[in-house]
Structure formats: C-alpha cells, structure tokens
Amino acid sequence: MVRIKHRYLLVNILYPEPPKSQPHQPLDIPDPVSIHQPTSDELTPQLLAKAIRDQILLMYGDYGAGVTSTGLLVKYLSPATSTAIIRCSRANYQVVWAALTYMTHLPRLPDQEKLQPCVMQVIRVSGTIRKAEEEIIRRARAAILKARRESQDGERVVLDQLLGPDNKGILSNRPERDEVLESGIEDVQDDDEDEDENQQAMDEDD
User: Fold this and answer.
1) pTM for this entry
2) Among 61, 84, 91, 156, which one is least packed by beta carbons within 10 Å?
C-alpha cells in the first residue's frame, strides 16, 4: 500500500494595522501584542481553506488547484492566538507555502465592513502534527516573555490585564527563547523519521 506523506505548515496570522480602539480597551497595547491580535471567531477552518485554494488557483491556475486538491486541510485554527496548522501533501507543500506568502487579506467575514489586511507567516514545516503543536507552545511562551520584557510600566499593566499577572514567576523562571522566534523554518528530517517509525509500528500491529 502506498502511503501519502504530508507536511504540516504552522502559520501565524499577523495584522499590520492596529486594532480599532474601543472605550473599554486601553490604547497603549505593546507592538508584539498588537501585531498578534486575535482573529474574528467568524473565521472557520473551512473559510480559511477556501481562501488558500482561491489563492493557489490565482497564482498557479488549474495545475496548482489540481495538485493540491487532495490533502489540503486546515487541521487546527485558533482565533484567540491567530495560529493555524495546515496539512498538505509533501510533494506540493511549497505551492501552498507560496500561496500563503502572497495572501494579503482574509476573506470578508459577516462581522467586518471591509477586507482585513493580514500577513500569513509560515514559521514551521513539520512532518508530523505533534511537532507543530509543540512549536505552538514554545513560540507562545517566547512571545509572552518578549512582550513583558519590552513593555514599559504602563504597557506592563495592560499585559497583566490581558494575560494575568506573573505572580508565581511561572514565565520568568523559564529560559528566554528569543531564538525560537527568529530561527525560521526548521529541518523536517527528524519529523520524517518519527512519521516512518509510527507507520512501521502500525504496520507491525496489523
């Protein structure tokens, strides 16, 4: 039996425009928090997948739509953290990656008056979804540490309101992993080995 190998793209949805201020919200939100603002709950995995397919069709025509039609799936989408994990075939993951890079806005949602500009940042390519999930946790921790360190006194109060005070030192006691945010795409060879080992174990059980 031929096994189709996949790639899992970990994507951050970034918003270059600051959020609209509301009376009950503070205005001095730190930049690391502002650019990682939450996504509307109206954005579903199905809508995001359709937007990616439309961009692939726009860039690569029927060829791109054909080679990515099977296997392209949004496995995880968190509006709160604006993070997504997108599964695609290993043979054509670069097509999906390129389409994400050239996406400049999300689809228009019911709660929006106009298209919202965004940047789709691919931060990890993995051979297993487990590796992508672990990377989400590492990067979330590093982002919180960076925002706390760079914030001023007034901004630190805002962070405490958004994230909760760090009274127990849970975050401050952990190593600061700025290199995690700047390391770029990591090698996926280890992920392939994990995937192969899992598949061999399944075959032996059968």
Assistant:
1) 0.69
2) 61
